[in-house]
Design brief:
single chain, alpha+beta, Deoxyribonuclease I, Chain A, 6-stranded mixed sheet, 5-stranded mixed sheet, 13 strands, 23% helix, 17% strand, globular, phosphatidylinositol-4,5-bisphosphate 5-phosphatase activity, transmembrane helix
Amino acid sequence: MSMPTGLRVQLASFNANQMFDGTGVPDMREWLVPTVNESRRSGYMTTDEGRELTAMSLGPREAPDIYAVAFQEFAPLHKALSGTVSQARTQADLAIRRSVRHHQSIVRDDKMYDPLELGGGPENYAKIADINHAGLVLFVYARERAPQRAHGTQISAAHRVKEVRASFVGTGLGMVMGNKGAVGARVVLASAVPGGRDEVLTFVGAHLAAHDHNVARRNAEWRSICERMVFDLMSVQLLPVLQEPPSLAGDDGDEKHGGNGYGNGDGNGHGGGRGVHVASVPTMRGCAPEMQSNADAADDNEYSLYDTHHLFVMGDLNYRVATGVDGVSPRGQRTVPGKYPPITKSDVHEVARSFQSDRWASLVPYDQLLLERYAPTPRTLHGLHVPDMAQYGIPPTYKYKARGEMEQLSKKRLPGWPDRLLWGTSDASYAASGTLRCELYRSLMRYTSSDHKPITAIVQLPHHLHPLSDFLPVPYALHPNWRTWRLVGVVLDRLVGYAWSCLLLLGHGHLYVAVAELLLLTTVGWYYVQGRW
């Protein structure tokens, strides 16, 4: 008998280069359903090799249970800072839902849905988080259908959601403004087994400081995110209204799910130490009766992004390829001195432009993220697994000529992998490997609207939380004045955003025209005041 599998989480990140400006939304299917147009040599086939699909068989790739989609530079900066991107967010949300709705028919060679009795048909995802701060946007969706291979025996990911909290941090100008920073969602899931412990997933979309030389600044911004991204009681989000899930096989009410039910929410949701009680949000949402009966008042604890069992960080982290320094092992292992001698900028340009995967691999040991993450004392992204770009054959994700040819790299900047998807787990069952199983890691080269390429990955969670699991170790304590920093940042964002928007309005969309007009008006006013007019 095969072991039950856990939820599958798809992560996706894209520095959109301000493309959501009201002029249209790009097609996201190949990004969010990465099996589209894949060849059998890709290692991620549309159909299992040698297996013919029939009308009564399951497709080769099931839709993920959770989607987390992060954008950076989502909209023009003046709109982002002034907080006027709600319409663009709505358009992006609809585009994402349209892209993933027909997942089953897209991944099947015959373009049919799986049999209805086996859980076939279009997909429905409940949006459980929608967080925006300046140019950063994070959407999190939970599938309303249970895993097909557990059809009739488990409830869906959406029906397991008990609580969602949202937070954001600005680390841009003055280390407070929103031109850089992070947004996050903390999701509490009921256990997949009766009486099991609640499971916490935290998703973070980040955009750190640019430019090759700003490594220390990026590290400092990560520290600020750890110190100031706080999930408190005021950050609790309303949950979507769902239909009741279908009855489970052999479900006879309280006899099966009585008592603690799915996730007891009585303090056993976590282990000792920092693993304090996580309760359900008191909201009516059409969830299973056994989950409603266990709903407690939301707790008033303040959680950091590391107060979680599974942490996912995605975004434009801006760590580039380092030159003039020794490299490190792509997997953080100790190496013989001199194994990775320093390289020059011309070496990086030459290798990247070859577009040969074996040559890309030679740049990976010089990845700034690896150098900082696997330093003797880690300086950034503490405790997170850094996927090996060489292992997955990922070409540089930056910097390309926006709206140019698919593989047209810019001559002005060093290519590299600033766009990353990272994850960490505290689940005790992964103590040996130290990381979750990664099913896929892919960048999408055909997207040319930005100077970055979108990336996506699918990772698999354990079926249920190991009894000995605690939260992840916290690298930095919460800042006592995090609320003040947040308020100052938001006020500055709005002031700059509104002023910028007014200038663009005055200049008919051109900032330099507005500046010229202001100078002219100032000069005329000065002459008038002096009585020289």
